[in-house]
Amino acid sequence: MAEGSLFEILSWSKQIQESTYNLIIEILKRENISDCQGFLQEKCNQWLLQQYIEKENLSHIEKQERLKNIEKNIGILLNILKNIQKLDFNNKNYSIKENIKQQKKIISDIYGIHSIVELLKFFVRLTATDSKFIQCGSNSLNLLINMNIDLKEQNFEYIKIKNTSLIGANFVRCNLSGSEFNNVNISGINLNGAQLFYCKWKNIEIDQLQLVNGHTRKVIKVCFSPDGTKLISGDCGTNVNLLDMKTGKIKSFLRKQRFAIAICLSPDCKILASCGNSYVNFWNLTTGRKISTLNCFTGEIQSACFSPDGTILALGSFANTIWLWDVKIRKKQSLFTAHNGRVSSICFSPNGNTLASGSHDQTIRFWDIETGQKKSQLNNSHRVYSICFSPDGTTLASRNEGTLLLLNIETGQQKSLIKLDYHYECSFCFSPDGNTLASGGSDTIGLWDVKTGQLKSQLEGHNGCVYSICFSPDATILAYGVEKQYRFYEYDWQDQQKGNNSIRLWDIKTIQQKSQLIDQPRVVYSVSFSPDGTTLASLSYKTIFLWDVKTGKQKSNFPLSDDDVPFIICFSPNGTEITSCSKSRIHFFDVRTGEVKYRCTYNEENPICISPQGTTLAQVYWDNSIILKELKTGKEISNLIGHKEKVTSLCFSPDGKKLASGSEDNTIRFWAIKNQKQKSILNGHTGSVISICFSPNGIKLASGSKDNSICLWDVKTGQQRFQLNGHTKVVKSVCFSPDGYTLASGSFDQTIRLWNVETGQKRFQLNGHSKEVTSLCFSPDGTILASGSFDETVRLWEIEPQQKSQLNGHIKEVTSICFSSDGTILASGSQDNSILFWDIKTGHQIFQVNGHDSSVNSICFSPDDATLASGSNDKTIRLWEVKTGKQKLQLNGHTRTVMQVCFSPDGAKLASCSGDKTIRLWDVNKGQQISILNGHSTYVASICFSSDNTLLASGSGDKLILLWNAKTGQQISLLKGHTGGVFSVCFSPDGITLASGGEDNSIRFWDLKTGLQKMQFNGHSDCVTSICFSPDGTTLASGSQDNSIRLTNAKTGQQNSQFNGHSNWISSVCFSPEGTTLATGSKDNSIRLWNVKIRQQISQLNAPTCSVQSVCLLPDGTTLASSNYEQGICLWDFTKHQQIKDSDKSFNELLGKYKTLLQNNSLPMFQQCAYPITITLLSQKLSFIAESAMMLRGEFINHRQMDLRTLFEQKGGIFLEKKLQTTLQN
């Protein structure tokens, strides 16, 4: 079958329901089936499908319909599997150069087709059980990554991937336990928060291999052994380390010896010579012992070099001389005055016949080794710092101040000149084939084409000067020393493209290009979210970048003029413009086109700030005064004088009525904009105030300082509330979350810290940036924090509330929750037919009541808390005694599902609504039906009594809301406006307003006097299932099938905040009587309690990813438990390296032991280190990261058989066996 038919085959998936894939994968895994096609073809396996469908909470008719659809879907899927098995897609690697054309074509064809995306995900998961589709699944994963499909929080347990590239994949919080990778490129992937238990990753390709620490002084020499299996490194303290390239283990040879200016290794790497002021020590690197010392020198030794055969050691001195020593007999062979200035560098030619020397006298001289005579001399216009012969001896590289010269040895003519960004410290080295020259500077490694002198690539990732650089013998690894550490990278020589100003992030074996950058990116100075939170703008040198927050991909960029570089950017309130402020201008860019709409010019180079209303500009002048101007006209309004030193920061209050200023005089001053007077001075810092920020409500001010602290101030009183300490360097940026309860601070210590504004306590510390943090910005909903840094990256951090406790007990979806009137008890009803009572203070279950024969849909406490009413799918209503949990009454009458029950405010009546289209009123004391209210044309989903007991509201699938006289049962009025079913209705406490939520995703507020709609909230993206007013009536909580809870201002209809955490849709929301706690129930089987005041969740997060939530080990060390997001608790045999299935006899016994340990947080370290993490890294350079990735045993080996575990740890990963061993010992 032709390859062109791949798109056609994938297109058949449009008829397949997503749930079918999930069901098939579940059956294949649980039943241990390795032949998917064979299983699906056998009709006798239909009973197994029926068995799994029976477990679903569906009616008999719905189950029959579901089975029918699945059978139809299976027929289509079988046809897809049969045909795709014959294509190259299931047999060839689509990520290599030969197949890139097909890859790009299929991506172009399928991009944006949801059904095909789900089919590709199915292929990936299918590899876990069916080996016939491993290449198909591998190519599918490659396509998903290249289409920027969101793969965060996916369950990829036991998948098998081979022969593909996963470059740049975002696997945040994915479950990859048991996965097997073979010949897979993982360069630049994000494994933050992933679970990696018992993985088998072999022949892995990755660019950056390892960062090796261990030296206490700057590393001045790195050198590979002749066979490439060892890397030797030495520092200026003559500390020498030997790194095993296969295992990554370091062996130290020499420790704390005399200070060395230069060290060099013999060609066979058996002898090390360390040179000091007037001595040379020879060391045996096999034994680590000193062989001998030479002490007969005049002048400090500047450079040393062994001859190619290792028999001669050449030494260059500060006294302008060169010494030649016979290594074997350790005697001087010759001495000659070589230069008129210090000899800074010497180097033997590859054949050993010639010695080259470079000097501060601006010459390079060539010497005949046999005669000691000068052969020739090259004159230079600058001092010569270092020299190096090419492998063939025809070219000499020479470093001067700011340049590298490539010289023809035979003619002495310059072949090419390379201009460097760095002037002094620089090491360089030829590749073994002589075609490439690597040069190291302060922040980058440059790879240059020797023939053309053009830059081929730049390697970044270090912070500090490069003092030594070296290629491995096979030219695939580049090692270089940086300050107190050294790095090594793997390099693909075939994947280089010529051209200036281009950066490539290199691969190993594949020809896959990772990224090409035109105009090298610089430091990130400022970041800003668009008002809708979908776009992030970042400011780098001469460019504004726009990023898609969801995918992390660049959307566009705006080049800036060369003569005026801005230092801060900000979106306009409507999101259509970006404002950039430089030292002398303000530009207003059109977000859509990138064109400058208008600009303002001023002539100062000090801080500026624009008022929130966009009308006023505050600008600092040279005399430390602050000038207020009209923004568009430039007309001066007033001059604010008071600071004694330079003003370093400005910030307007949210209402624009106040201006705060921070200064190098260590003070903060408040200014009244209306009367242009100073209101108060805040003293507290002992260093310059670098950053200030008002809280969203303008009540608090945060300030960051050069004294490394943050102060929180009360704006009204000017009193300091807290001083926040922890940063070890300057606090460059402070930023409040949109709700004002969290403060983020970024520092030159490379960390970000999150603080609880109410308590002043640190919540989290975010590590990840490799250089100073310069800018912070919260997304509008407060769930994401963006940070910019000098490391040229922007990181997006997932910011979720703190976790305290967990309410577990239901085994199916939680359908309804209700607080007792005193707020001490929470009741929950579930599709598991039970009702649970919880002690809110302790979080413990009080007792469970059973009696209903089907799902409990609704529960409600009586006003006196003595009785609980429940309505069920079994068509009955039951009344329970709260103290004992005993059933008091059963009310029969409804002919279909009871959807909601509600007590009247006096507790005398109970209202119920049902799928039978009726509302019924019951006498609670007598247990008798009072009346039936008819009026709706389909199911009635919700009912609610007004607080004065006069009205009853009902919402129905007929899109209507009816108002009834609660005493007579007569219909009073009809409210019409929803375009879908009304699922929830709720009266405000004052009885003036009725809120309703429904199938059309909207929440509507109704004026009960006029019967007209007052306003509408459209924040949810799916059906609104439950709403509830706070006791004071100021806030409306809503739960939705979009899995979110939102708090809406009941007066304005504007969203106050959003709570995320549930992994399935919200079925019920309920405020506690005092209004400080919100309870939510969900189809994810969980209940969560939220602190409304500080917007923090008080229940443990559960998400559909199997990510580790906590881990503990039994005292005997044989079994590990991981409390994860999807399965609750997973048990692992620590000795056999495999998961204990729930079918094993030992499972229940072990599970009982673990529940106690996990609930007691016996290993809280794992919970702390697993959150929060970078969910997206926005950078022009791809970077491999693994912050809080949890690894247990397993193998991670690259194609050179090097163990990558050290790299994973350096990138933030955690190997649990190390932690667990420490715990057992303690």
Summarize the structure.
This protein is mainly beta and 1226 residues long.
Structure description:
The protein is globular. It has 12 helices and 97 strands. The longest helix has 25 residues, at 60-84. The strands form 25 sheets. Strands 1-2-4-96 form a 4-stranded parallel β-sheet. Strand 80 (1003-1007) and strand 81 form a beta hairpin. The chain is mainly β and 1226 residues long.
Defining key terms:
single chain, 1226 residues, mainly beta, four-stranded parallel beta sheet, four-stranded antiparallel beta sheet
Shape summary: globular
The strands making up the biggest β-sheet line up spatially as 1-2-4-96
Multimeric status of the protein = single chain
The fraction of residues assigned to DSSP E strands is 35-45%
The portion of residues assigned to helices is 10-25%
Euclidean distance between termini CA atoms: 63 Å
Write the layout of secondary structure elements.
Elements: H1 6-11, H2 18-30, H3 36-41, H4 46-54, H5 60-84, H6 100-110, H7 114-126, H8 134-146, E1 160-165, E2 180-185, E3 195-197, E4 200-204, E5 208-213, E6 219-224, E7 230-235, E8 240-244, E9 250-254, E10 262-265, E11 271-275, E12 280-284, E13 290-294, E14 301-306, E15 312-317, E16 321-326, E17 331-337, E18 343-348, E19 354-359, E20 363-368, E21 374-379, E22 386-389, E23 395-399, E24 403-408, E25 414-419, E26 427-430, E27 436-440, E28 444-449, E29 455-460, E30 466-471, E31 477-482, E32 485-490, E33 502-504, E34 516-518, E35 526-529, E36 535-540, E37 543-548, E38 554-559, E39 568-571, E40 577-581, E41 585-590, E42 596-601, E43 608-610, E44 616-620, E45 626-630, E46 636-640, E47 647-652, E48 658-663, E49 667-672, E50 677-683, E51 689-694, E52 700-705, E53 710-714, E54 720-724, E55 731-736, E56 742-747, E57 752-756, E58 762-766, E59 773-778, E60 784-789, E61 793-798, E62 814-819, E63 825-830, E64 834-839, E65 845-850, E66 856-861, E67 867-872, E68 877-881, E69 887-891, E70 898-903, E71 909-914, E72 919-923, ...
Parallel strand pairs: 1-2, 2-4, 3-95, 4-96, 95-97
Antiparallel strand pairs: 5-32, 6-7, 7-8, 8-9, 10-11, 11-12, 12-13, 14-15, 15-16, 16-17, 18-19, 19-20, 20-21, 22-23, 23-24, 24-25, 26-27, 27-28, 28-29, 30-31, 31-32, 33-34, 35-36, 36-37, 37-38, 39-40, 40-41, 41-42, 43-44, 44-45, 45-46, 47-48, 48-49, 49-50, 51-52, 52-53, 53-54, 55-56, 56-57, 57-58, ...
